[in-house]
Amino acid sequence: MVTATDQTTEESRRELPAALPAATIDPDESADLPAERYFNRELSWLDFNSRVLALAEDTSLPLLERAKFLAIFASNLDEFFMVRVAGLKRRDDTGLSVRSADGRSPREQLQMIAARTQKIVDRHARVYLESVQPELDAAGVHIADWDDLSSSQQDRLREYFHNELFPILTPLAVDPAHPFPYISGLSLNLAVTVRDEGSEGGEHFARVKVPNNINRFIRVDKLRSAGERTGSDDGHQPAIFLPLEKLIAANLEFLFPGMHVVEHHVFRVTRNADFEVDEDRDEDLLQALERELARRRFGSPVRLEVGDDMTEHMLELLLRELDVNPADVIQVPGLLDLTALFEIYGIDRPQLKERPFVPKTHPAFAEGETPKSIFATLQEGDVLVHHPYDSFSTSVQRFIEQAAADPHVLAIKQTLYRTSGDSPIVDALIDAAAAGKQVVALVELKARFDEQANIKWARKLEQSGVHVVYGLVGLKTHCKTCLVVRREGSAIRRYCHIGTGNYNPKTARLYEDVGLFTAAPELGADLTDLFNTLTGYSRKHEYRNLLVAPHGIRTGIIERIEAEVAAHRAGDPTARIQLKANALVDEQVIDALYRASQAGVPVDIFVRGICALRPGVPGLSENITVRSILGEFLEHSRIIVFGSSQEYWIGSADMMHRNLDRRVEVMVQVRDHRLTADLQEIFDSAFDPRTRCWELQPDGTWTASPAAGVEVRDHQRRLMTRSRRDSDSGAAT
Fold it and tell me: What is the top EC class of this enzyme, as a single word (predicted)?
């Protein structure tokens, strides 16, 4: 976690448009709200991951999609422990008595998490062992045990073991001359007990690390002889996989010759991946971050996963040597680390997957089959793109690539939070700098788990002549903005992109996001001011058409919520609040929504993950509905609608403390009625009574909706159909 510095400048109130009634924000009003009005955010996150698991249980989905959701669940849980549980343990260990919004201490939360996690892990394992794996077997995709294989298959695997695997394995003994080895986070390991053959002597412990630089699953049916495999998978022959740890376990005798293997068990350690960089003390942020990343490898254990067949003796040894609390042990039936099912998902079995969706070029950016200049398009008006339904490569990526190649473009200014390993965005910025354009890239080095990649990009950009900055001290720069300055005759014109998602072509095919393209002069001026703040010493907090955190988003949102209350009390039937976000945790925003509900304002919330707001409580939130939709794409856009003023805002900020207080975030108002109609359609589809979703209940449970027997619509599939229709219509014109 990065330490945020104190903000010494007083938050200034953004002047509201005349169309909005004046609102007075009084934080003391929250004192009248009930104390138990928030759900615990950590348990709410576990509920979210349970909804991911429910997709793996859904037999109406193609089989490999269900396997993929098992892998996503496991990956999510890893990160939860590395960050959220690690943070709670640090606060508990240091005696910080900071309580959660629902009044629980760090220790109380850790106890609840431990109990809930064991139950959800058991359920996860059952879905794999009792449903997905048997159905994969029936479909000709076998994840085998050693004893399931024929003798000829075992012979080929032993040859593979000796020629390709044995040379890279390193068994590590533990005795007075060999201390207990360091166990890296998330690595898979075999704990082995051996003793001398023909001896009554004592037993000895050894650890064998399962290599993580080769595939977890060995394709048995493709093995011929050492290093030789058959051709590509034709999709018809049975595919047989053996987990790597099972091959090692079956051949332990070769790692310990002359010894008798008494027992072996698989285990996995999760380590604290949270860390702090003191930006006030460290003069070189890049070097300081590299130093802390090196320390991350040695974070303290926060979870120990073991097979449910592990003996008490072996478990006690691991607890002692790893210094792990028994409460941090998770027993896993079956295979550990099902993130490896991503490998199984990658096989060529299209009949077991959803039909691939191919994004279409937004009609505004094409004339038939011919790409259209994005600059010419934006001279005609604003464009709203909705990924992945609208292609990222032919909109956002093409915008930056055209800017890099256009001789009339003078400057490109870009924020980069996360991008792909092979980044055409970075390549375009490098090309622009080589062409003599002024190029500024704000690379956020502190993007969690992408720090190393961003350090690499920062260095590459700097070496290519791009002006690279790292943002503001104490704040992560999380906004998604690009500004292109272009000479057109005797005038200078600015073109902007402001989005909700990262400049990452790979995730743009998987994440649902929206973005605004515009050449509106006032927005160009706003982005110019913002970049001057990010790169220089400007302390500007007021903008014409933007809300900017950490000074303006929470205040701006609450003012508009209060304006909806005032409009409703004045008899305006259009007063309504609709909010779409990844998470809703911020207490001030939640309390403002409670007050709106108490005043009779309808509130629709479309949240993917955490929701600390308690809906449907009489006298508090009976006018609030909370829905969650998970599916083929990860719902990621942030959109807020205020009905009486017909204001539509999109941006990068979730309703969380970190976004509103410790990050630079941007929200922009979409004004064009053609575009706001597209945004409204997202909410209309999500809150259609026939749309498949989960609804949050007052007691914190999530119930599947609609009820059995009701016609069901899929929100994302509906938008895919619309995308194809709109694209075909645009091509026809």
Answer: transferase
Annotated ligand binding at 636? The verdict is yes
The residues, any chain, with a CB within 8 Å of residue 689's CB and separated by 6 or more, are 706, 710
What Rg do the C-alpha atoms of the chain give, in angstroms? Answer: 28
Alpha helices per DSSP H over 259-336? 285-296, 312-322
Q: How open is the CA angle 526-678-643, to the nearest 5 degrees?
A: 75
Nearest to 49 by CA among 2, 84, 91: 84
Residue (of 639, 640, 635, 637) closest to 576 by Cα position:
640
Whole-angstrom Cα distance, residue 494 to residue 526? 10
The Cα 575–Cα 646 span in angstroms is 9
In this structure, the strands spanning 624-628 and 603-607 are: parallel
Q: Can you name the residues that pair with 578 across neighbouring β-strands?
A: 604, 641
Name the amino acid, one letter, at 405: A
Query: What one-letter code names the amino acid at 460?
Result: K
Query: What residues form DSSP beta bridges with 484?
Result: 412, 495
- Identify each DSSP E strand in 290-378 by its residue range: 301-307, 329-332, 366-367, 370-371
Catalytic residue among 264, 478, 551, 568: 478
CB atoms within 10 A of CB 400: 24
429 with 439: CB under 8 angstroms? yes
| pLDDT mean over 22-44 | 75
Q: Is 554 annotated as a binding residue?
A: no
Averaged pLDDT for residues 614-632: 97
CB 212 within 8 A of CB 337: no
| Rounded Cα distance, 30 and 281, in Å | 38
Q: Find the length of the chain.
A: 733
Three-class secondary structure of residue 564 per DSSP: helix
Phi then psi dihedrals of residue 590, to 5 deg: -60, -45
Residue pair 414/503 in contact by the 8 Å Cβ criterion: yes
Kindly list the structural domains of the chain, giving each domain's residue range(s) and its CATH number in brackets, ordered by start: 27-41+547-732 (3.30.870.10), 119-352 (3.30.1840.10), 363-540 (3.30.870.10)
DSSP 242-259: EEHHHHHHHTHHHHSTTE
Rounded to 5 degrees, what are φ and ψ at 642?
-115, 110
Q: Is the backbone of residue 449 left (phi > 0), alpha (psi -120 to 50) or beta?
A: left
The mean pLDDT value for 163-191 works out to 91
| pLDDT tens, residue by residue, 417-475 | 877 667 899 999 999 999 999 999 998 876 666 677 777 888 888 899 999 888 777 88
In 643-711, beta strands by DSSP E: 647-651, 663-670, 693-696, 702-705
| CA atoms of 401 and 675, how far apart (whole Å) | 24
8 A C-beta contact, residue 67 and residue 141: no
User: Distance (Å, rounded) from C-alpha 474 to C-alpha 4?
Assistant: 4
What DSSP assignment string belongs to 388-421? TTB-STTTHHHHHHHHHH-TTEEEEEEEESS--S
Q: What does the block give as tokens for 623?
A: 């006018």
Spatial distance between the Cα atoms of 491 and 63, rounded to a whole number of angstroms: 57
What is the C-alpha separation between 533 and 607, in angstroms, rounded?
31
Share of the chain above pLDDT 90, in %: 73
Mean per-residue pLDDT, 150-177 = 93
Tokens of 146: 């050693």
d(CA 37, CA 589): 13
Helix (H, G, I), strand (E, B) or coil at 412: strand
- Cα pseudo-dihedral 445, 450, 451, 453, rounded to 10: -100
76 appears as a binding residue in the annotation: yes
Does residue 478 carry a catalytic annotation? yes
